[in-house]
Amino acid sequence: MGIIAISGKSGCGNTTVSRMVADRLGYTPVNYTFRTMAAEMGMPLEELFRKAQESLEYDRKLDEHQTMLARKGNTVIGSRLAMWMVPEADLKVYLKASPSVRVSRIFAREGGDRKEIERFTLERDARDRQRYLALYNIDIDDVSVAHLVIDTERWSASQVADIIIDAYNISLYGEQHGKIR
């Protein structure tokens, strides 16, 4: 009953890579995010962020739901807090990229005003950090709990997925089962 937890800030490739890894392993992807919650509630993402700033119940609800799903096993959970919220994960991965690359990826994915995306992304990073410190005493800028930190500017999403799968197989079965020799 394996669990892989993949964390990173917006635009680092969490969703894309998590889905690739889950698909390749035949695992269930768990990517229940504020974006998903906002869609389910029929409200814009920005409105849910405002509500989450006013009440931590939204964070707790989201985190409880996704960790419950991840703990079913044979899952790949991709979220900001995955590697902290599922400490028993077999592999905890942090994906990183510079703010400018993250903004470019978000712009390519969603379109809109690039300057506004940059402003929103940087504000979101700061708000998320403060909120998670207040809620769980988790500093999302301290990635020391990760087994593996990957700079997603260096490799494609597919290559990052390969690296994660190799590391996972090695952690479970030893070097002879990974691609790395």
UniProtKB/TrEMBL annotation:
GO cellular-component terms in the record? cytoplasm
- This protein's major location comes to cytoplasm
Q: Where in the cell is it found?
A: Cytoplasm
Is the keyword Nucleotide-binding in the record? yes
Record key words, sorted: ATP-binding, Cytoplasm, Kinase, Nucleotide-binding, Transferase
- A molecular function GO annotation: ATP binding
State its Enzyme Commission number(s).
Answer: 2.7.4.25
Q: Which residues bind ATP?
A: G8, K9, S10, G11, C12, G13, N14, T15, T16
- Give a yes or no for keyword Cytoplasm in this entry: yes
Provide the reaction this enzyme catalyses.
Answer: CMP + ATP = CDP + ADP; dCMP + ATP = dCDP + ADP
Among the GO biological process terms of this entry, one is: pyrimidine nucleotide metabolic process
What does the similarity note say?
Answer: Belongs to the cytidylate kinase family. Type 2 subfamily.
Q: What is this protein called?
A: Cytidylate kinase
Q: Which organism is it from?
A: uncultured spirochete
Organism phylogeny: Bacteria, Pseudomonadati, Spirochaetota, Spirochaetia, Spirochaetales
